[in-house]
Amino acid sequence: MSTEKMKKELESAFRSAMRQYAASVNIITCRARGTWYGMTATAITSLCADPPSLLLCINRGNNFYAAISEASEFCVNLLGTQHQEVSAAFSRTVENPLDKFSSGRWNCELDGIPYLVDSPVNIFCKVASTFSFGTHDIVVGTCERILGSEDAGRSSPLLYTNGQYTSVSAVN
Ligand SMILES: Cc1cc2nc3c(=O)[nH]c(=O)nc-3n(C[C@H](O)[C@H](O)[C@H](O)COP(=O)(O)O)c2cc1C
Questions:
Q1: What spacing in Å lies between the alpha carbon of 16 and ligand 1's midpoint?
Q2: Domains by residue range for the chain, with CATH
Q3: Is the pLDDT of residue 153 over 70?
Q4: Whole-model pTM?
């Protein structure tokens, strides 16, 4: 088998393997060039608590990448099962980035970073570091402020696995 074919087969097996992962769905938002940007993302993880920090993996082909590259701050908005349509809206590339925000209830404070009002948790971060790897950039953010919706305890997290939205259920 040619090296190119082996590479393609491994890539395809990798994609299939990663589809089995179940991940929480979020919308990352930022303000850049005087407007709002947002993108649906599952490649987000807690990094450490000292300092409170997390990391994001962003495809450099996405419009959001150009925006976050210029922004010094961003917000991670966790989604609940009621946000499936919002997630779908923010996973589409559109001509005017502001159009995405007609889906969901958005607000901003003095810093101008949009946050989803009824999100279970909004985590506001400052960009601390970025690294490039393959097609993506890894962005490390240090947490500056956290907002929690009053409904947080009642909201069930929106998950994505096997190319579909789903929700958690108890195993016993
Ligand atoms: C459930 C789900 C999770 C996603 N996670 C990521 C992610 O972690 N990183 C990423 O770069 N793109 C991710 N995407 C793809 C972006 O949301 C998609 O490319 C979007 O169109 C980007 O918008 P933009 O071109 O306006 O930046 C995800 C899409 C979906 C549906």
A1: 17
A2: 24-167 (2.30.110.10)
A3: no
A4: 0.95
